Amino acid sequence: MRWHSGEDLLPFLRGAPFVDVAEGRLHVTRLDPADSLSYPVGAWQHALSTAGVRLVFSTTANKISFRAWDPGLQPEEEGIVSLWLEDSRLAASNQRNPGDEVQVELALPAQGEQTYSLYLPYISRLEPMALGVPDGATLSSVDPPPHVWAAYGDSITQGRTASDPGLTYVAQAARLAGVEPLNLGYRGWARGEPGAAHMLAAMNFDILSILMGVNVRVSSWLDAAAWRETFRNFIELVRLGHPTTPILVMSILSCHGEFADATPNARGVTMNALREAEHDVVSQRIAGGDAHIRLIDGSSILGPNDAALIPDGTHPNDTGMNLIATRIAPVLREMLEL
What we know:
alpha+beta; Jelly Rolls; five-stranded parallel sheet; six-stranded antiparallel sheet; about 25% strand; single chain
């Protein structure tokens, strides 16, 4: 086998907003490590997952070998690594080896030179060490799409309950829209934290989507009036660094079961009220002259009649993820004027 290892993997790495190389491994974080004290501990833990992180490469090989370190993040979770050719999954491997090395070997179709994407786990974490192909096979990097989409949100954006890291709505919508995605979803968080808004203001991207608010209701974090102000402040902070960058707001998707849209939490707050607060903020920004923000009502994507697509009440299954992706991909392209 001929191996690319350590920093030689950097040309293949995608979806990694912050990365350094240490001990021969790529250490990816999805929140800014230079400002780690600005984030809640729980958010930081989930920022260490490799959601949306991929190795993209072109090769003539008939198989690929991948070595990575499993640091043991979320040891109870699966560690699915999946290989995709365009919009088709070719193979997947679910291996965990906390505190040690993982090696995966996946067969490739014998179709000459092709471009593949190797998706890393979206809940747990792998630190890439090496990518290998048989002697005589080519292995080269591929230029990414020119437009970067930053997708900010909670566990729905991170991909919770998708059966494969390539089936999160972010992964699917990015392939449909032909854009380069950054998955900035954090399980249990995205409740308007100012540290995250400041991070987004400082990042480079061409379009931003925001899907958050579920955890405000689930945790009884804020009432509707406080959420309206928090949401307004969050967008204003982002606008400090991106005054004219397109922002797509998806309001809270319909929820079911104990979290059903009209069911109040301990503070009397409903998903409906929080969603309406988000609508108010975006409407006020548009009325105030922000021509680069757009709203999609989340209940029009996954609505009150879609309980079968949201088995646990808040997280879409694969079909639900696909519905989100197919709805927002054309909007992303339109806002980017593609």
